[in-house]
Structure formats: C-alpha cells, structure tokens
Amino acid sequence: MKQYLKDVPETLLIPLWARAAESKIDNPIVVDDKALEMMEQIDYDFTKFEGSWMTQTGVAVRTEILDREVRAFINKYQNATIINIGCGLDTRYFRVDNGQICWYDIDLPEPIRLRRKFFEETNRHKMIGKSVLDFTWIDDIHKTGPILIIAEGILMYFTKQQIRELMYKLLEHFPGANMLLETMTPLIAKNGKKHETVNKTGATFKWGIKSGKEMEKIDSKIKFVDEWNYYDYHKNRWKGLGLLILIPFFRKNFNNRIVHIKI
Questions:
Q1: Which one of 56, 137, 216, 253 is most buried, by most CB atoms within 10 A?
Q2: SS3 call for 143
Q3: For residues 110 and 207, what is the distance between their CA atoms, to the nearest angstrom?
Q4: Contacts of residue 7, Cβ cutoff 8 Å, sequence gap at least 6
C-alpha cells in the first residue's frame, strides 16, 4: 500500500510506528495490535524511526494518559460525543467505545483516505476529511450528549493565531465542552529541527506554552482544569533524562503535557 504523505500529514506515521514498536517489547505501556497491522500494510520506510526511544516512550505515555481520561469522561457521560481533531491513524475509539458514544475522527483528506483503508464508518463512528481550520467540519457534527474534544499531536504545528481562531470557533459552537490537548514548551517548539523523529519529515513546530494555564489567556471563557507531565509516568523508561527531570529548569522547559480545559 504505497502512500504519499508530506510535511505535517507524514507525522501521523510517527505515533503509528511508536505504538506498534511499544506493542512488541516486554512490559509495554500500551498495546496496539491494530497499529502493528497497519504498519505492516503501509509502504513506507519506518526504519528511519528505529531507535527513537524518547518518541516511543512519549507517544506511549500520552496514549496511556489520554485513554485514561477519555474513559473517565465516557464513564461519566455514557452518551458522550467525542471529537478527535487531527486523528491521523489513531485507534483510541476501539479501545474506549462503550457501545453508546458518538465519535468523529477529523483530519486532512489524505490521512482520512488512508484511514478508510483500515476502518469502516458506522452510525456512531464517523470520519471527516477536512482541515481542522476549514471550520465547515463543525456542520458535520451531530451532538448527542456532553462533548469531549481531543487534540493529540496536532496543535504544535499551528501558529499562535491559528490556535486562537480554532479556540474561538470551538467556544462559539461547543460551549461547555471539555478538551484534552497535547502541548509542548516554547523551547521544544523552537528547537523542533532537532526532534529525533519529526526532523525526518518536512514538518516544523510552531507553537508551545509553558503551562496549560496559559490557555485561559486566549479567552476568559476557557477554564484550566488539570494537566499531566509525561515525565511523571514510567520514570524508569526515561533513561538518562531521569536525573535531568529533577532539575526545575529542565522539567519546566523541556516537557510535553496533556492539558484538560473546559470551554
């Protein structure tokens, strides 16, 4: 299955590789058999990512955190509507589905065409092939219950202005929704060319914040709820970084987090 993905769309293959690689080791943080299946069928040189242990660990940790928080939301609101923006080849729906939720996977047309080779739509699981910044996708959402928006591995590729535009649209159309988003710090974004896997694609980081609390600066309606630093999980997997993350400056300026806000 030959694929032609460039720049940001190509980055969707990084977490796919990471989840598949994690699934093959002893005592994995997450197991994703579907990722293994997809990787075997996609004609792409995944060997370029081999040995990228920090990326593998980071993706595994963020998957664990997001799975946990999404499950908690669904357990609280069994008829929830989940909007997964920049979904790539994410498989979370199949791990957390309770048989009642409605789930929307949204990404650019190329990634969605690739998703359709592996997944079929149902009445409760829809795929929308549009840019997240093409806000007509909002018209395709049919709300059935409390809303949770997931933004995993996407917002760091947007400019600050694009982030603001997106958040204003979400505030306008989904007031009261909860949102789980992945963030990185400004220093990591600035040094993105040195990233061990993203630097092997044509993508560049453009946005970062030091704390999820900064999301409240976009609009007074946005309320920070919580955040989870990747370094707080599976500390034995961070190798030499285990000592560095004890240094306040490093911990504050070189980390990725999952941030929970309410809009």
A1: 56
A2: coil
A3: 23
A4: 201, 202, 203
